[in-house]
Predict the structure.
Amino acid sequence: MGELVVSGLLRSGWPADRLLATARRPQRASDLSEKYGITVVGNAEAADKADILAVAVKPQDAGPLFDEIGGRVGAGKLVVSLCAGLTTGFFAARLPEGTPVVRVMTNTPAMVNEAMTAISAGPYASAEHLDIAEQMFKPLGATIRVPESQQDAVTALSGSGPAYFYLFVESMIEAGVLLGLPRQTAHELIVQTAVGSSVMLRDSGEHPAKLREAVTSPAGTTIAAIRELENHGVRAAMLTALEAARDRARQIAGEMK
């Protein structure tokens, strides 16, 4: 995800010489420098020199990282966290008082500039800080501002959301094979159907139920399939799954205090 932020900033016009990156492995550092023309430095040097610190590490690695650099981050710097589950309070406890923190949850469609990114302000983050965060992530797709109290729900819905779609598409491809279609044919049919349906949903502004009803003829094939989906509790399973993802985000935050 850190690399996606770097590539997005470069696409939006940020000069490469204004960007610093850190990496745990020398080979990774070399790859980033060669690919993007940016300077790769150590964590301490990045904390000293950068005005904006984008933190894109696994939640369990954030504590050790800020044990190392927390005291070097001045209150005039902006910290942008992409760490799932971690609250702005987690960072505030490890930073000088008054340091602004913005919490961000994006998703992997950033790789094709179709991300959904939710942005939340910590206690010391101003509207200007939120504007900066939006400028960082707009090249990767759409952005939305939400209260931080909603970020665990965002993580469950859109942060993890691509995985649910991939699982559903994978299941439909398997069903196509079961019905006698070659796997590649089933793949092409379902992927394009998913793309077209998503574009219709986005561009029409219609409620998904209305679009679904437009496909569902009385006593037809679609309603027969939907009845079986409802009989198997697909809707209820999705509700339960997203609750589980939200609860896991909260658990991560609790473990990292």
